[in-house]
Every structure is written in C-alpha cells, then in structure tokens.
Specification:
Number of helices: 2
Mean pLDDT: 91
Shape: globular
CATH class: Mainly Beta
CATH superfamily: SH3 Domains
Helix content: 10-25%
Radius of gyration: 13 Å
Number of strands: 4
CATH topology: SH3 type barrels
Distance between the termini: 41 Å
Order of helices and strands: HEEEEH
Low-confidence stretches: 76-80
Strand order of the largest sheet: 3-2-1-4
C-alpha cells in the first residue's frame, strides 16, 4: 500500500471529523459489516484509515486505498 501524503491525510481528517455519520460502500474483510451499514466516525489514524463505530457493533476501520465509505447527512433527511 502506498503511503498517504500529509496533504491527503489532512483532507481526510477534515472530511471525516469525529462524530460524522458514514455509510459503508465496500470493505475487503471477511468480517466486514454488510455494504450499506451506517456508523459514526471517531477519528482518522496516521495511515489514513477512518476509524468507525458501526451501528451493528463492529469497529473495523475503513482502510485508506482499499475500503470505501461515504459521509451521510441523516439530520437533513429526517427533516425532509
């Protein structure tokens, strides 16, 4: 895996701050939560992995460059 640049790491930390809600798109792990599982970010580590507490109880990280998630705005959906 290619190391993450300082600039990209800073961008990820800005995009995925602690408390933001995410939805899993893809995870390359046999113990991964199903695609579509939602969770709450609690940080981004120095390798760029997004640390998530998934709603199903899992705490597997979204590994930079391998796995994929997207941030979601549940509050605006509830108000709509």
């Amino acid at each position: 895996m290619k190391p993450i640049s300082k600039e990209r790491l800073a961008l990820l930390r800005k995009q995925y701050p602690a408390g933001v809600r995410v939805q899993l798109l893809w995870m390359d792990d046999v113990q991964a939560p199903p695609a579509g599982t939602k969770g709450t970010v609690w940080g981004v580590d120095d390798t760029g992995s997004i640390m998530v507490q998934w709603d199903n109880g899992s705490s597997l990280n979204v590994v930079y460059g391998i796995d994929s998630c997207k941030s979601i705005d549940e509050k605006s959906r509830e108000e709509a």
